[in-house]
């Protein structure tokens, strides 16, 4: 299992980012995929999950209405669209096919 995240960076409060995760080494379309995040000094937090065909999604209450998870099974890629970003969203974001996760991508929200 190989998961590579991209799309992180520095953004001002209220801004948007789209994270991508390219998966390989397994049959991507057969698995739930998730995004987690970990802020400094805090435990890793589940942000969003999507079902294998993409028909069902769940997002954490802390990001509901702002973040959207999606996937493209033809591209073996899962996305996290993040809008109205706030400083408290600052964290390393990880793409996971439990129990496997990528190396993460840093998202920093700051003016």
In words, what does this structure look like?
The protein is an all-beta fold and 111 residues long. Helices cover 0% and strands 51% of the residues. The chain has no helices and 11 strands. Strands 2, 4, 5, 6, 9, 10 and 11 form a 7-stranded mixed β-sheet that branches. Strand 5 and strand 6 form a beta hairpin. The chain is globular and about 40 Å long. The mean pLDDT is 97.
Q: How many β-strand stretches?
A: 11
- Strand pairing plus helix content: what structural class? mainly beta
Number of H/I helices: 0
Secondary-structure element string: EEEEEEEEEEE
Mean pLDDT: 97
What summary fits the major beta sheet?
7 strands, mixed
Keywords summarizing the entry:
111 residues, seven-stranded mixed beta sheet, four-stranded antiparallel beta sheet, 51% strand, globular
Please give the structural blueprint.
Blueprint: E1 2-6, E2 9-11, E3 17-24, E4 33-38, E5 45-50, E6 57-59, E7 67-72, E8 77-82, E9 91-97, E10 100-101, E11 105-109
Summarize the structure.
With 111 residues, the protein is mainly β. The chain contains no helices and 11 strands.
């Amino acid at each position: 299992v190989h998961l590579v995240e991209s799309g992180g960076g520095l953004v001002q409060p209220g801004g948007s980012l789209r994270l991508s995760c390219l998966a390989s080494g397994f049959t991507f379309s057969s698995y739930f995929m998730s995004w987690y995040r970990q802020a400094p000094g805090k435990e890793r937090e589940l942000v969003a999950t999507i079902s294998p065909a993409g028909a069902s999604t769940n997002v954490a209450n802390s990001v509901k209405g702002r973040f959207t998870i999606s996937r493209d099974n033809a591209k073996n890629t899962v996305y996290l669209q993040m809008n109205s970003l706030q400083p408290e969203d600052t964290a390393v974001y990880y793409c996971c096919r439990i129990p496997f996760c990528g190396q993460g991508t840093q998202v920093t929200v700051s003016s």
